[in-house]
Amino acid sequence: MEYKVSTLAAFGSVLREDFNDTSDIDFAIDFNETDPIKYANLYFELKQKLEELFKRKIDLIELRAVKNKFFKEELDKNKVTIYGL
């Protein structure tokens, strides 16, 4: 895959009835890349492409960067995996 995505999941208002024309879209993502420079490039390139595709603001969080236990529990409970595991 061009962006080396291993996991892509949606969460937040995009999955609820309160999603509207002004809502952003929240995605949680992980890449098959370990080089920090390449990883950062993939992150920003994919974020830009998703914003062009959906024509709205995208919030992209890295799954491996989620350290807050309570946020991680909520994310795991509510996310919908679009691609990957």
Question: Can you walk me through this structure?
Answer:
This protein is of the alpha+beta class. It has a single domain (5-84), classed as Beta Polymerase, domain 2 (2-Layer Sandwich). Helices cover 34% and strands 28% of the residues. It has two helices and four strands, in the order E-E-H-E-H-E. It has helices at residues 36-54, 69-78; strands spanning 5-11, 25-31, 58-62, 80-84. The chain has a four-stranded mixed β-sheet, covered by helices on one side. The model has no long low-confidence stretch (mean pLDDT 94). GO terms for molecular function: ATP binding; metal ion binding; nucleotidyltransferase activity. Residues 4-83 form the Polymerase beta nucleotidyltransferase domain. This is Nucleotidyltransferase family protein.
Helix content: 25-40%
**Shape assignment:** globular
CATH topology: Beta Polymerase, domain 2
Helix count, DSSP H or I runs of 4 or more residues: 2
CATH 2nd-level architecture: 2-Layer Sandwich
Query: How would you classify the helix and strand content by structural class?
Result: alpha+beta
Largest sheet: 4 strands, mixed
Widest β-sheet, arrangement of strands = 3-2-1-4
The ordered string of helix (H) and strand (E) elements is EEHEHE
- Euclidean distance between termini CA atoms: 15 Å
Calculate Rg over CA atoms.
13 Å
Spans of at least 5 consecutive residues whose pLDDT stays below 50 are: none
CATH superfamily: Beta Polymerase, domain 2
Number of domains: 1
Residue fraction in strands: 25-35%
| Number of E strands | 4
